[in-house]
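protien #1 (seq + structre)
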Amino acid sequence: MKATVVIIAAVMLVGWLPVASAYSQDAAVILARIDSVLNAPKDRVMIEKMTLIDKDGNQKVRKIKFYQKGSELRLVRFLSPAEVRGVGFLRRAENRLYLYLPAFRRVRRIASSIKNERFMGTDFTYEDMSQSTFTRDYRAKRLPDQNGLYVLELTPLPGADVSYGKLVVYADPSNYVYRKVEYYDRDGKLQKILTLSDIQQKNGYWVPLTMEMRDVQRNHRTVLELQDVKFDQGLSDKLFTQRNLKRPER
């Protein structure tokens, strides 16, 4: 009788392993496609309204201009109000981040040790601002679908320079656009939720008209509303330099 049980268990295990392996491989494929859609344009230029909302409902409204070329080069400039106008953020590579503060007329390099600090009072950290792909820093495990969306649990790869304990990504299987990302801290507690809504296709690329990053621990939100976007403008690499970071937006 014991031998029979062992044989049955062994058959069940052998039959389960290929399924589990395929499921794991499927997660990696899904994540790669999400990254591919995310960085599909050769470049992009966006104007966005940024609203910071605190726990009491008080709001601060800002306007930013966002440039990106490929998956690596990224530049953000504040256009208004006057108190933040001219502040700029530059990403040259994952570990080469720069901040320009007009009041000091100097470019400051963002050290890896402070990448988890909030960017200009928003709910996005410097790490969030520099994240260009998921596959570089995380391995994926597929969880059961929810509400028709793929669900992937992402855990940091060995040696990855990230501050989160894990991410949970929800993506639309029809176009591989992610709709929501949950960020968990190193203690496994939910820290933030990024939600993308009103997804539209413009010039052949999928783009959310609204993004909200909500810090559930601080009860604070940052909402980005897309006002204008242009794709494949032939942006020069010279735009993404420390020298250009200090130049005022024309």
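ok now protien #2
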Amino acid sequence: MKTPAASPLGVALEELARLVGGEVQGVCEELLVGITGIREAQKGQITFLTNPKYAKDLETTQASAVIVGSQIPQTSKPLLITSNPSLAYARIAQFFAPPLSHPLGISPLAHVGEDCRIGEMVSIYPFVCLGNRVEIENGATIYPGVYVGDSVRIGKDSIVYPNVSILSGTIIGQRVIIHSGTVIGSDGFGFAQDGMTHVKIPQGGIVQIDDDCEIGANNTIDRATMGKTWIKTGVKTDNLVHVAHNVVVGEHSLLIAQVGISGSVTLGRGVVLAGQVGVAGHITIGDGVMVGGKSGVAKSIPAGEVVSGITTMPHQTFLRTRFLIQRLPEMAKQIRDLEDRVRLLEAELKRKKEDHGNK
């Protein structure tokens, strides 16, 4: 599918429909120059409706067109109808996003160590510090305040935002985005007990992040004790995620804010860990598993499961349990009433037996 060329004059709704594989309902007379929220949109912009609670805003929005799903609302607005409106929004937002420009070359205020290999069309900003034997491939952008340790490799077209630390030996793939404040390759948390003291275990492995990953702000991804901590292709992490030593995160998995993964855990392909999920060490989470927010995962989970709770249980069981928790005060009173009735019945039965024995 050929992507239409962006134009400052705008693009027809039909062109955007072809871009996302959708269809048009109604006539949009304006060329479209941007995309924004349904309440903020103005004439010449396209908006989107993915949440039914915003349906009431359809007739008051100033947008020239609206992206909708298969549930087509009653409206006089021109519509772009698609089976996946969220994906259509992402594609169209990318189309309208202005290209980022960077000053090419290496700033004289950057430090470049010995035997570094720097590709073409790179942007290395002031106050970047590159160690020895660093390799930065074509088109990569390194923002101010980034530290890159010895023997690190950063792949083609990757972007490293300000104040990131990438420690020695780390391998970063192509088109990887690393957001500010993240530390990659810090020592794993490894200590041996000697009485009341803790003896540090040297962390001699590396971190490898494969192509097309995006690492959120203030992540910490620890180097392996031996071998590698491995973030596979297409993984996306939110802010404030911790990945411990020797963890393997399978392709296209999602780690949401404040997830913490203990050492030597293996995640399969397409795993989703919601916010504040904690994972105990040395377990395996299978392909396609989804773990609900604030859950504690203490044992391995087979592929395809949806689990929640502390510790985790099948999601539907967790929902029923949560409903029962709300009723516990009422149920406790009912149990006390039943116990009182049983005691009265037992006393009555005992009295009748005694009366019968006295006759």
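DSSP finds four helices and 38 strands in the chain.
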